[in-house]
Amino acid sequence: MGDAYCSDCKKSTEVVFDHSAGDTVCSECGLVLESHSIDETSEWRTFANESGDNDPVRVGGPTNPLLSDGGLSTVISQPNGTTSDFLSSSLGRWQNRGSNPDRSLILAFKTIATMSDRLGLVATIKDRANEIYKKVEDQKSSRGRNQDAILAACLYIACRQEDKPRTVKEICSVANGATKKEIGRAKEYIIKQLELEMGQSVEIGTIHAGDFMRRFCSNLGMTNQTVKAAQEAVQKSEEFDIRRSPISIAAAVIYIVTQLSDDKKPLKDVSLATGVAEGTIRNSYKDLYPHLSKIIPNWYAQVEDLKNLCSP
Question: What keywords sit in the KW lines (predicted)?
Fold first, then answer.
């Protein structure tokens, strides 16, 4: 029960909340004041006085179809705030001794989730990486290989397939000690295994320089106008035969655009923000330089401004 203003009664009246339908109903005339409300309170009440991190009034996580038990198995833990007694410790020891076929998968999924959180990836990419790892693990051919590199490569492929690519260097920064070369080898191995399972080639998407622009520009703290100019310049650069990697082209375009703005960024900062070596940015700048008049938008810089740029 509560008070609310009823537009039919033209006054404040008592209302009743129907939990089953999510409706707020006027007790005087029966008018539904609000429908399909979401009840964000606890699923049930608890009278326990526990100070642990676990909230006893909330339900558990969703089911995981990639696990044999759906991720709903029971885990026996120590009681909060008390020393281990005989019953709980014995049951816990017996459970730990028991073989759990999904133990390696659970640990792998946790590692992928940790890497995804560090990179700020959405849940769909994490789920795709879990599916890729499950397919590789089912073939039982990855034993003896670097598991950290395998997990990182699964995440890299998932980003490519979801059209949210990340550079190998970005993936390497969150991998547990796996190097770029190891992740590259693991990526080729996973693609080969997926092709054997599916009987057809596996598409992981094409990388474009524009896929990295907004994230790289955000790392440098560039203004909206400069970001817009960089995005347009990258799109126009695809019309020319510039034989450089998309990441190198993106870094070179960012460097050029910032040199034409009031807030010039040094080459070292651009290299740190993009993960591209300074020498590679210089070489890409050299390849882009003859086409700058057609790449840089006219509303952002004139021909005179381009002539003031230092030659590569």
Answer: Metal-binding, Nucleus, Repeat, Transcription, Transcription regulation, Zinc, Zinc-finger
Q: Each residue of 103-140: b (16+ CB within 10 Å) or e? A: eebeebbebbbebbeebebeeebbbbbbebbbbbbeee
**For residue 228, which of 179, 195, 204, 261 has the smallest C-alpha distance?**
261
SS3 at position 219: helix
User: pLDDT digits over 96-132, tens only?
Assistant: 555 566 778 888 899 999 999 999 999 999 999 999 9
Sorted by sequence, the CB contacts under 8 Å of residue 166 that are 6+ apart come out as 119, 121, 155, 156, 159
Spatial separation of the C-alpha atoms in residues 154 and 171, rounded to whole Å: 10
Report pLDDT for 77: 59
Return d(Cα 86, Cα 253) in angstroms, integer.
Answer: 67
- Phi then psi for residue 299, to 5 deg, are -70, -15
**Number of neighbours of residue 156 by Cβ within 10 angstroms:** 26
For every residue of 265-298, which 3-state class applies, written as one string? CCHHHHHHHHCCCHHHHHHHHHHHHHHHHHHCCC
Could you give the CA distance from residue 21 to residue 279 in angstroms, rounded to a whole number? 64
**Reported confidence tier of residue 312, pLDDT bands at 50, 70, 90:** low
For 294, phi and psi rounded to 5 degrees?
A: -100, -15
Residue 256, both tokens: 């050029």
Q: How far apart are CA 172 and CA 176, in angstroms?
A: 8
Q: How many CA atoms are closer than 13 Å to the CA of 80, on its beta-carbon side? A: 9
From residue 269, give the alpha-carbon distance in Å to each of 198, 212, 229, 264, 277. Answer: 44, 16, 19, 10, 11
